Amino acid sequence: MFVLNGPNLNLLGTREPGIYGRETLADVEALCRRTAGPLGLGIDFRQTNHEGVLVDWVQEATGRAGGIVLNAAGYTHTSVALLDALNAFAGPVIEVHVSNVYGREAFRHHSYVSARADGVLCGVGVGGYALALAAIAPLLDAPPADRGART
Q1: Which contiguous run of DSSP H or E holds residue 102?
Q2: Within a domain: residue 93?
Q3: Which of 20, 75, 112, 129 is catalytic?
Q4: Is residue 104 part of a domain?
Q5: What proportion of the chain, given as a percentage, has pLDDT over 70?
Q6: 102 is catalytic
Q7: What CATH code is carried by the domain that includes residue 113?
Q8: Is residue 151 part of a domain?
Q9: Active-site residue among 50, 75, 77, 97?
Q10: Smallest Cα–Cα separation from 47: which of 97, 2, 107?
């Protein structure tokens, strides 16, 4: 299971704590590891500020990861390249956002990632990562047609 994080998430805990909270990315990783164990999931937790690296990791997931939990951060709203990489990945994808993107600036209301995601969690803080892992676990063995209403 890949848990992938995009730009500026390395600044969690210090960047706009009124929006993103005080938990750090290390706290998020620890939460993911605590959550993944009882679900029988191994995780590969990564963060990058570079779009191409994120695309490379999504491509790497094929053959290495059953699913992807993805917080693409700002690339959510801008990256067709990331969407194309996700469309080439056969496993389930859960999109996560720490903040409620729909309560923020209008440009954040559009997500390229959502066009491919099997589920989306936003606005529940870093706990959304734990919810995403719980949501993706039963999808790992489900055929794509049984995973959700993707078109």
Answers
A1: none
A2: yes
A3: 20
A4: yes
A5: 89
A6: no
A7: 3.40.50.9100
A8: no
A9: 97
A10: 2
